[in-house]
Amino acid sequence: MSPGRAERLRELGLWPVWRLTEQRPSAARSSDLAVGCATAHAQPPTPDTLDWTDLLATVAACTRCGLHQGRTQSVPGTGDRNADWLLVGEAPGAEEDRLGEPFVGQAGKLLDAMLAAIGQRRGNNVYIANVLKCRPAGNRDPDPHEVAACLPYLKRQIDLIRPRIILALGRFAAQSLLRTDTPIGRLRGRVHDYLGVPLVVTYHPAYLLRNPADKAKVWEDLVLARRTLSQAGPG
Ligand code: URA
User: Fold this and answer.
1) If I label 43, which of 15, 150, 181, 235 is the partner at 20 to 30 A Cα–Cα?
2) 226 CA to middle of ligand 1, Å?
3) Which fold has domain 47-231?
4) Domain range summary for the chain, segments of one domain joined by +
């Protein structure tokens, strides 16, 4: 479904269609099982069966959290849908919100340079996304409710892309994905697992702009990620 059609249906109150996402074996009553109408028991639609077209339309029309009220547009992600590399940042900033693409400002340029250092480039074998698809106003930290509402979209992107390595960019992405409050310094330097995909943590490019001395550490992280990928053998 196109984003425009989704928007129109939503304005008419006809979309998203409420959908039963889980069987509730013993407690389910017949009224719980009605598909296509909102009941007290209906769950918001989960994206876990959507194809790319419907996923992008759903993200474009999403109202799962309050961030939709302040967005110009959602920023689902960009790149090669068959990528080995998935890079995950925090959330769109003002420029990303305006243009609909992640990492377009100075931090994006540095991210492109980081990719070039390992022989990769945006859009080719690389997909770039964020934990949050909409911009938190004033660059405040996302709150846990927003993360919980948005994470199913990233999970579905991972299912569809099937990346072979995930690079978590910055403390927020790393802690959100790994569900921990361990400081980023202690999450770096080893290979984690996220939904069965190896995950390496590194500093956010915006942090690196402020702390260029840490570029050497980012290089170590990139080398670790590249080595992890090559040790996994051909995809
Ligand atoms: N910072 C992020 O984490 N993501 C973006 O898309 C831009 C800046």
Assistant:
1) 181
2) 22
3) Uracil-DNA Glycosylase, subunit E (3.40.470)
4) 47-231
